[in-house]
Amino acid sequence: MNRRQFLQSSSALSLPILLNGIPLSVLIQPQAFRSIEDDNDKVLVLIQLQGGNDGLNTLIPLDQYDNLANVRSNIIIPESKILPLSETLGFHPSMSALKNLYSEGKIGLLQSVGYPNQNRSHFRSTDIWNTGSAADEFLTTGWVGRYFDTKHSNYPDGYPNNDYPDPFALSIGYLVSETCQGYATNYSLAMTDPAQLGTLPEGALGSTPNNPYGEELTFLRQAIQQTNAYSETIINAANNATNLSSKYEDNNNLAQQLKVVAQLVAGGLQTKVYVVSLGGFDTHANQIQGETTEGDHANLLARLSTAVEAFQDDLKLLGLEDRVLGVTISEFGRKIRSNFSNGTDHGTAAPLMLFGSCVNPTIIGDNPTIDTAVGEEEGVPMQYDFRSVYGSILIDWFGVEESQIRGLLYDDFQHLPILSCRVTDTTNPHELDINLTAYPNPFDNHINIKFSLSQSEQIRLSIYNTLGHEVKMLSNRTLPSGTHDISIETHNFPSGHYYYRIQAGNRQKTGKIIKL
Amino acid sequence: MTRRETLATLMGKKKTTSSKQERQASNITLSSYTGSWSNEQAAHLLRRTMYGATKEQIEEATQNGMMNTINQLLSSKNRPNPPINYNEPLDIYAPIGQTWVEKPLIGEGNKVRASRTRSLYAWTIKNMMEEGMSIIEKMTLFWHNHFPIEINVVNDPRFIYKYSSLIREYALGNFKALVKKMTLNVAMLRYLNGNQNTKQSPNENYARELLELFTIGKGALAGSGDYTTFTETDVAAMAKILTGWIDRGYNTYDPSRNIEAIFVPNRHETGNKQLSHRFNNVVISNADEQEYSNLIDVIFEQEEVSKFICRKLYRWFVYYEVSPEEEAHIITPLAQILRDNNYEIKPVLEALFNSEHFYHNDNIGCLIKNPLDFFMDIFKKFNIQLPDSLITKYQIWFSIFGITPVLQMSYFNPPNVAGWKAFYQEPLFNRIWINSSTLKFRLDIISYMVYVGIDEGGDQNILIDVLDFVSRLQSPEDPNELIKEIAQIIFIKPVTNEQVTYLKNFIIPGLPDFEWTVEYSDYLSHPDDMQIRVSVENKLKSLINTMLSMPEFQLS
To answer: Do A125 and A269 belong to one domain?
Structure first.
């Protein structure tokens, strides 16, 4: 039974996949498994943009502008209003604060982040992003939770303790975050306002029968005990520090969430992961209202932009900039074509934003190619897998060994140069220079993909359809150096657009091909 | 030991699988329950089917027996009177005391609309408060969670009322008929953009949710855009089948304008629509305003529809995890009953509440109360009385409604089209209701209802009358019996001796038992002596507040 079959067969509660490849002896002795990352003071802030952000109206490819205007004429931002970041890319006009941060080198962008076989259900795709699974894998642990599990295999038994007095993760809001779901319990505490925390009566312990009633009772008792145990450290941290930025807007809920995060980090709380959220990105209708620069999407991006600006300003004033990294995540991008309701429907990949003084302050990846003949269902094809983003953060931010990442996330992990502070490889590894050509293009009954390798390398080459589904995997093995010309039989392919994606180590390239 | 168990043991984890899954399959049967029928079973049935059953209702159900109680719970009921204007003089079409549900907006529309929304909110509380021995309100909420709409998207109280009336009318009705009605419900047409679905530009939103959330569910990915139960092609084709419908009368000021769904032929795609092999490659040809109905007939030919809804009912009424044995021995036969009865819901519920499985010890007390269950339990189990005036009652009901958002579950405000997470999100399910914030809120609300109460502007706040509550117990003068009796009303399992000892600290700290008997008897002999009365009352408040704050109270 391989790992995937194993996970699929255990549907209710899967084992964390980190077990794969890690010697059991290590797991039996959790102390031995402690690594240098215990001293790490880095903090990760995840911003969930709930609903699926329209990437094409967020980070706009200027070199595709005319075609984009053609296929989304009712919502296209006037070219003159776009805030240019480079010659070929610009931000939505609501994002001036983020543009300034980009100029200051505190924003990094990664184009077209998604995963193979995109699922367009909000719920399923959010689960995929939260668990860090493949599209056809059902995991019940979150990617952050699995990371904590590698270090705290007994949690929550015996926590908090002298070594770990603080909660591992905090979700600012009313719900714990599924990203932090561990094997036994969720590592995140949900909290809105430190001032609201208090001590809950524990009552007298009665017996807990060994049945579902007893399990729920135990869960409740643990929730009370843990809240009490952690609330004191949270309250102390909040009392220790005051926010210094005056830029947080009162009516901006995301800004208020980030304000709490900054206060707690400044107050000395050793929590490693904070989860905040901004809802409303499911813009099927009224994405724009009146002018295309106005409407629901413009308001959301403005809120995101000013909230991050205030947070970053606060961190700078508090002297914490080097310790905090922020990342936006969203379950999918939206379709390339807009709909009749001045909105956009569920799509595929979208850009992902990182912020903080440690990001690699550049835009990684190619602009999506927009074609006026784009199909109704078509989304932006994936260039980078979101699990490679997670894995790169674990390595470069939390100091996890690269050898563990494949077990924690996935086999095709690609180490991406998204951070400048700790990244080891600072060359431009996303450039894949292998003289890649696909011919004939357009194609009919066959297509050839040709490339040259200067050294022997592991090559993954696949063809995707416009829904993001992997229709053919051509290679997933080590190829010798030299020229390779792979011919693919395609007479079964329905006519239309396809993408190929080739990945060699940390580098990849995506291209469009058309079946006649 | 399987590999999974071995690894889990090595990792020192407690919960490998739920203990329920490890249990023998012997109890997993729909055969009729033949065990004893006592307070325990009656209370379990009422907890799962009603809000806050009182001591008296549980006693009645114990007396009447299982079959009679099930029949009573599942019998049809007069529809509640529609919501009334209770405080907005500007709503001149619906003067105070009268209903607004058939009346257009007037004058300062936003104020009138806001007042009607408040009235609608209050009315949902009223319906739960006044449900009597009936499952209708819990099933209404079930359907609201199944076919969610959000008031911030459909911001017209008359539309929401039509929606609410529909799910209440079909609470125990025919599922297939309900899906048909829901497809053309004005609120749903707006919520999922059905009203923007045209042949020129099909909008897939409703078609997708119709399959994924409302009828057949989404299976595993089996191929490009193929989710085992349906495909992306089906979503696109079904969107076209459903083109042409619009809603009329949204926030209308026009007295002659009806609120209705209308079919507009020139917005309808008349070409043939080809479904995928998941629906046997059926071609749906043009049938104009009947076409949606033909489509739903086709969807309902798939057995998976009956299983999908039965699984959801099971999670709602029994337990959140469905094991493979339960799938085979409970869900599959329930689904068969549903199909044999042409998708009538009532026979399914009858079979479930009649079954050995429903009353098995594993299924008693294993759910965490949702926020409405939690709050209604406090209100109803303690017989909190409201003033006679209907207008005042509406004010109080609205105040109560105001508590529900902080507990994360308020009517017409689900988080999204999948409903509340606690009913579907693995692996936590109903544990999602509980965390540091919400637990604190729950306990704050308990203290509020014990000590402060809802201010309705009258002489006294609306709160738990601990003296009145205790006076209706059998042996309130015996501190041990007092605690055990309260526990029997508000908890699922009896309190342990250890817990009784702990709880006695709140009424007789460091004193022998007889001192309570002396004090309480003294109060009974001199009920108007404020000194004695207040001191006994304070002790009881402290006891009841503590007991309600125990985690045992959070279980259902």
So the answer is: yes
Confidence (pLDDT) at A103: 95
**Which residues are paired to A57 by β-bridges?**
none
A416 in a domain, yes or no? no
Distance from C-alpha of B161 to C-alpha of B104, rounded to nearest angstrom: 13
Nearest to A190 among B23, B435, B503 (CB): B435
User: Helix, strand or coil for residue A375?
Assistant: coil
Q: Which of A217, A463, A469 to mutate to test the interface with B (most CBs of B within 10 A)?
A: A217
Please state, in angstroms and rounded to a whole number, the distance separating the CA atoms of residues B545 and B486: 12
Contacts of B118 (CB under 8 A, 6+ apart): B87, B398
- Chain A closest-CA separation from residue B80 CA (Å): 33
Domain count, chain A: 2
Return the H-helix or E-strand segment holding B69: helix B66-74
Residue contact B8–A15, C-beta within 8 A: yes
Cβ–Cβ pairs < 8 A, chains A and B: 206
**pLDDT averaged over consecutive 10-residue blocks of chain A (516 residues)?**
29 28 29 43 95 96 96 96 96 97 96 93 87 87 93 84 91 86 85 77 75 92 86 90 96 96 95 94 91 95 98 96 96 94 93 95 93 90 96 92 88 90 50 82 90 86 83 84 89 87 80 87
Whether residues A197 and A93 share a domain: the answer is yes
Mean pLDDT along residues B370-374 = 97
Mean pLDDT on B356-372:
96
CB contact under 8 A, A189 and B198: no
Kindly list the distances between the CA atom of residue B481 and the CA atoms of A373, A425, A471, B471, in Å, as whole numbers in the listed order: 79, 72, 70, 13
- Is B19's CB within 8 Å of A211's CB? yes
Answer yes or no: is A195 within a domain: yes
Shared-domain flag, residues A348 and A461: no
Kindly indicate the confidence band of residue B205, based on its pLDDT and cuts at 50, 70 and 90: very high
Residue A429 lies in a domain: no
Per-range mean pLDDT, top range of A125-134, B20-29, B240-249: B240-249
If asked whether residues A477 and A364 sit together in one domain, one would say no
CATH number assigned to the domain comprising residue A116: 3.40.720
Residues A398 and A304 in one domain: yes
Chain B touched by A431 (CB under 8 Å): no
Is the CB of B554 less than 8 angstroms away from the CB of A220? yes
Judge if A57 and A154 occupy the same domain.
Answer: yes
Residue range of the domain that includes A455: 437-515
Residue A420 covered by a domain = no
| A459 and A396 assigned to the same domain | no
Q: Is the pLDDT of residue B59 over 90?
A: yes
Is B439 close to A200, i.e. CB distance below 8 A? yes
- DSSP characters for A275-337? EEEE-----SS-SSBSBTT-SHHHHHHHHHHHHHHHHHHHHHHHT-GGGEEEEEE-S--B-SS
Is A229 an 8 Å CB contact of chain B? no
Given a contact cutoff of 8 angstroms between Cβ atoms, the answer to whether B125 and B137 are in contact is: no
Chain B CB contacts of A135 under 8 Å are 221
**pLDDT of the residue at A306:** 98
When mean pLDDT is compared across A199-203, B104-108, B159-163, the lowest value belongs to A199-203
Spell out the residues 6+ positions from residue A183 whose beta carbon is closer than 8 angstroms to its own: A13, A15, A16, A141, A145, A146, A149, B8, B11, B13
Longest dimension (CA), chain B: 85
Q: What is the pLDDT of residues B406-423, one digit of tens each?
A: 888 999 999 889 999 999
Q: Across chain B, what does the average pLDDT equal?
A: 92
Q: How far apart are the CA of B68 and the nearest CA of chain A, in angstroms?
A: 27
B432 contacts on A by Cβ (under 8 Å): 175-176
The tokens for B83 are 């919501």
* Nearest chain A residue to B409, by CA: A174
ipTM score of complex:
0.91
